[in-house]
Amino acid sequence: MLLLLRSRSKPTTEPRTRRQWGAERRSEPLSIVHPVPSGAKITWGRVGIVVTILSWIGYVVSTIVREFIDYGGNFRFTMEAFSYLVVVTFLTFSALMYLVARQGALLRFRDHVRAPRGMIDRHFADTTSERLTVLIPSYAEEPDVVRLTLWSAALQEYPDLHLVLLIDDPPAPTDPEVRAKLEATRRLASDIMESLAAPRERFQASLELATAELASGPVRRRSVKVLLKEYRAAAAWLEEMASAEDVVDHVSEFFVDQVLMGLANELSLTALALEAALEQGGLPDSGRVLELHRRLAWIFRADLTSFERKAYGSLSHEANKAMNVNAYLGLMGHVWRPNETAAGIMLDEVETPRPGDIVIPDSGYVLTLDADSQLLRDYCIRLVYYLEQTENQHVAIIQTPYSSFRGAPTRIERIAGASTDLQHILHQGKTHHNATFWVGANAVIRKRALEDIVEVENVAGYDIKTYIQDRTVIEDTESSIDIGSAGWALVNYPERLSYSATPPDFGSLVVQRRRWANGGLLILPKLWEQVRHRRHSRTRVHLVELALRVNYMASIAWASFGLLFLLFYPYDSRLLSPLIVGAALPYFIAMGSDLRACGHRFTDIFRIYGFNLVLLPVNLAGVLKSIQQAFTGEKIPFARTPKVRDRTAAPGLHVLVPYLIVLFSLLTAWRDFHQENWGNFGFAMFNAILASAAISAYIGVRASFVDMGLGVLNWLFVEPKPKAPAKQVATDDDTIDWAAILYYGDRRLARDLRRRGDRRRRLRRSEG
């Protein structure tokens, strides 16, 4: 039995990312099924919620109210007390929401019962399941990373699985290196299809033979021996592929050990059961034998292709992931005829296909998957099985919030991964309170639900369909509100079945976290509209659900500004109280317990605090961008940050601010020491020490000075943009561009009208 649990991680001579001191040593992921929490853990969770609430009430009564009753207060003290109370209240509210969501997760983990494989196999044998289309948007991704994602999805067990790689790179790059990477990405789908051809044909033929044989008689030992041979062959094929893989980092190690060998071990376990049945003289019935044959055929049956929207002038070219997915969703279920025009290739819808047309079949389910994510073996079949239960017909989106790849080689990736693992728990708890949000790395979506929220606009004679809103860069959060407003529900499946990459350095983390901080405030009005609509329709809106949703969308804003006030404003020492610590203590204890349960260290709570200190300017930048967008109505794009050797350079200002936090904290501590204001002194020194440690560990002193120097250079020297040559209808030799004239009529006017249409559509969406 131990042989079934072997790992096939293969050593390689290729260089890995240099492993830092303090990085993660553990490479094996956590269990797919969450451990059942003890009764004591659930009880202490309730105690923590009560202590947090009572501590806040005690602080308001014993400190704020008492100070005004006993001593009164001038205008300055009154404003300080009011602002301090607001900051403490909002921060305590966020801590309380953490405890509430965590408590919901514990209850779900306690009550979750995993559906047996036999029950799932029987369901799909008796039910004609709808097609599942996997959409993987990719922009300038490394082909090796995308390849692992494609393989993890291609090996999913599902009766009718279709994978589409949505390549969003410019279709005709001039840089030879960029062009070579694009061509490698384009070949991925066909390469995987070619690799799957042999096992697909073998196991499909075996299924057909077994179906014919069992239709004419009962199960015989020979039939079980054939099935056993096929399962051993499938496991051997996966093991051979695992042995041939180059393990260059912890992500590829996960792919080999958990995706390939995880599936191989599961198939080997089935083979072991079949072998035991033969030895013990008991044979499975004919239905079970056919189900096991279908399983092998479905694992290797996936159909893969790629699509590039920028090759067609009639599709939206807006530079974001949401419109990349929307472009393909809008084509599904129709036949399209490419039509070459002076404006490029246009796609015209036709009724009857002919050779050369593009036929894009419709799908009952759509799985969106980020190009740097991986799925474990039965992600699709378990989530679709859940959706197809009678009691879940109202569920539109189901997902497993992604976890981080283990074995992170850098300290910042380890801590960012730890915060991701905490979010996985919190998202599970939100489902307990009907406050689920779509986390865009992966999700299975009912296509019917998307049709209920689609918006259609005509731009230059072509319909542009928007299913997933792109007016903010957190499109999944806004779509969660849209789905809920349309009467559908969202669910987080309480298992760990998906993993996604974590930024390995501070520069790339800045890009990600600034994106996460931008947009929540803009979506809040939609939430209020949804609440009003539900109350009007007499649908109960639970206070806890509303509080969790508001906290999810706005907590980055108030936490960032609150921390800013606490760091840089010298509040009166009379406002301090041990009860503030009492309100925060359950939150930090619970977080430490959750970190330890996820395989991290209890003391990582201090590292995460320092981590959030150095991310303060990043979060503030994202919030300010949201406010700017609210006033201007123009969407704020994020530029790709420059690369410095093997890392991403961070904006100079985002690196400078953490140093300012340290210096100002030290200055505050020096002043409070001489004033014998020991509470403020301790808080200032605490921030200075943790921020200094975070700068050294997560940014790097040398790298920070390089980034600040680059920031100064980029500010001083701006490369002028070359002016585009004016387009003329007539060429130098007076040849008339007749095709352009016939197509546009007035070329310049048509181009201006199209641009106005695009801008008008963006403004409508941002004001919506």
From TrEMBL:
- From start to end residue, where is composition biased (Basic and acidic residues)? 11-23
What keywords tag this UniProt record?
Glycosyltransferase, Membrane, Transferase, Transmembrane, Transmembrane helix
Where is the protein localized? Membrane
Query: Disordered: where is this region?
Result: 1-23
Q: Which residues cross the membrane?
A: 47-69, 81-101, 550-569, 575-593, 605-628, 648-669, 681-701
Membrane topology annotation:
Multi-pass membrane protein
Which Gene Ontology cellular-component terms appear in the entry?
Answer: plasma membrane
Which Pfam families has this protein been placed in?
A: Glyco_trans_2_3
Is-annotated flag, keyword Translocase?
no
Q: Which residues form a coiled coil?
A: none
Identify the residues that the record assigns to the Glycosyltransferase 2-like domain, covering every copy. Answer: 365-590
SUPFAM superfamilies in alphabetical order: Nucleotide-diphospho-sugar transferases
One term of GO molecular function: hexosyltransferase activity
Q: Give a yes or no for keyword Cell inner membrane in this entry.
A: no
Query: What is the protein name stated in its UniProt record?
Result: Glycosyltransferase
